[in-house]
């Protein structure tokens, strides 16, 4: 079960890497749009995150439900915004910046809202 958890965690991280990479690849461009890396990355991260929670719930480890709820909410907003704008020829720069902020906040919640082991 631990191997499956680690595989899903790596897939989850790679999904966010693709999302953030797809966003940052457009940093210098004039027009912003939802690209394939963003679409596939957010979908991969969201689904791998759901599967990861399932594996954690099935195991013996404690699950922080508040953290999961916050990550689920942010992830769902990211997924909806990306998918709703996939076919548009361009997106506003404010939406592009908001997607970056939400993706970085999602990563910060994952990393910073962790138990401290001494």
Summary tags:
118 residues, 73% helix
What does this structure look like?
The protein is an all-alpha fold. The chain has one domain (about 1-110). The protein is about 75% helix and about 0% strand. The chain has helices at about 1-25, 35-60, 65-85, 95-110. The protein is elongated. About 20% of the residues are buried. The mean pLDDT is about 95.
For the residues shown, what is the average pLDDT? Answer: 93
Compressed to H and E, one letter per element, the order equals HHHH
Number of structurally distinct domains: 1
Secondary structure tally: strands: 0
Report the uncertain regions. none
Radius of gyration: 15 Å
Question: What proportion strand?
Answer: under 5%
- Structural class call reads mainly alpha
Question: What is the quaternary state of this protein?
Answer: single chain
* Helix share bin: over 70%
Largest sheet report = none
- Which overall shape is indicated by the principal axes computed on the Cα atoms? elongated
**Between the first and last Cα atoms, what is the distance in angstroms?**
25 Å
SS field, number of helical segments? 4
Secondary structure blueprint with pairings:
Layout: H1 2-24, H2 36-58, H3 65-84, H4 93-112
Helix pairs in contact: 1-2, 1-4, 2-3, 3-4
Q: What would a concise description of this structure say?
A:
By secondary structure, the protein is mainly α. It is 73% helix and 0% strand.
């Amino acid at each position: 079960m631990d191997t499956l958890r680690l595989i899903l965690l790596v897939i989850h991280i790679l999904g966010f890497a693709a999302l953030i990479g797809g966003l940052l690849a457009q940093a210098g461009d004039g027009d912003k749009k939802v690209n394939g890396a963003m679409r596939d990355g957010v979908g991969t991260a969201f689904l791998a995150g759901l599967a990861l929670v399932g594996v954690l719930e099935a195991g013996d480890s404690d699950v922080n439900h508040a953290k999961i709820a916050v990550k689920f909410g942010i992830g769902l907003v990211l997924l909806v915004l990306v998918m709703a704008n996939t076919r548009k020829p361009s997106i506003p720069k404010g939406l592009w910046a908001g997607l970056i902020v939400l993706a970085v906040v999602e990563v910060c919640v994952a990393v910073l809202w962790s138990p401290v082991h001494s």
